């Protein structure tokens, strides 16, 4: 009697786990094969269009920031990159700082913050001016740019 009770209590063994692992392995292998095929056809397919190489502007002053100011060359270049985007957003094409000088409006205060006026010449010859506020912090210098009307 006890033997019959024990055998009834023992769960029947199932191959569920084995089947799940096998299916997962097959799906993974299929994904790897598909990814390899896509990669092969992407990189081995002939290119119909020639590779375009960008050429620098014929105007050497287009990528030159104005000179002067209190910022070092790295910070000046970072501000200039943002300045070119800001000028494009107001319709100033081919912004250039060549031959222009940055004016310091406010010398560094106790926190090290200072303000400068940056002139930018557009392709039309018009000069736009921007106020740039520099604020040192733990990571470097944060700068804010705003257009001067």
Any overview of this molecule?
The chain is of the alpha+beta class and 149 residues long. It is built from three helices and five strands, in the order H-H-E-H-E-E-E-E. It has helices spanning 2-9, 16-44, 73-89; strands spanning 67-68, 101-106, 114-121, 127-137, 140-147. It has a five-stranded mixed sheet with strand order 1-2-3-4-5, covered by helices on one side. Strand 2 and strand 3 (114-121) form a beta hairpin. The longest helix has 29 residues, at 16-44.
Write the layout of secondary structure elements.
Layout: H1 2-9, H2 16-44, E1 67-68, H3 73-89, E2 101-106, E3 114-121, E4 127-137, E5 140-147
Parallel strand pairs: 1-2
Antiparallel strand pairs: 2-3, 3-4, 4-5
Q: Looking at the chains present, what oligomeric state does this protein adopt?
A: single chain
Strand content: 15-25%
Binned, the helix content reads 25-40%
The best one-word shape is elongated
Number of strands: 5
Unreliable stretches covering 5 or more consecutive residues: 49-58
Radius of gyration: 33 Å
Look at the helices and sheets and give the structural class.
alpha+beta
Mean pLDDT: 80
- The succession of helices and strands, N to C, reads HHEHEEEE
């Amino acid at each position: 009697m006890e033997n019959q009770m024990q055998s009834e209590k023992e769960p029947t063994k199932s191959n569920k786990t084995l089947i799940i692992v096998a299916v997962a392995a097959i799906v993974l292998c299929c994904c790897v094969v598909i990814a390899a095929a896509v990669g092969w056809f992407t990189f081995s397919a002939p290119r119909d269009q020639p590779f375009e190489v960008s050429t620098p502007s014929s105007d050497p002053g287009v990528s030159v920031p104005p000179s002067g100011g209190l910022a070092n060359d790295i910070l000046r270049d970072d501000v200039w990159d943002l300045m070119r985007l800001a000028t494009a957003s107001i319709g100033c094409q081919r912004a250039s700082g060549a031959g222009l000088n940055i004016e310091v409006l406010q010398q560094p205060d106790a926190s090290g913050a200072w303000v400068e006026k940056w002139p930018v010449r557009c392709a039309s010859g018009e000069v736009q001016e921007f106020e740039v506020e520099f604020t040192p912090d733990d990571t470097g210098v944060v700068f804010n740019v705003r257009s001067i009307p």
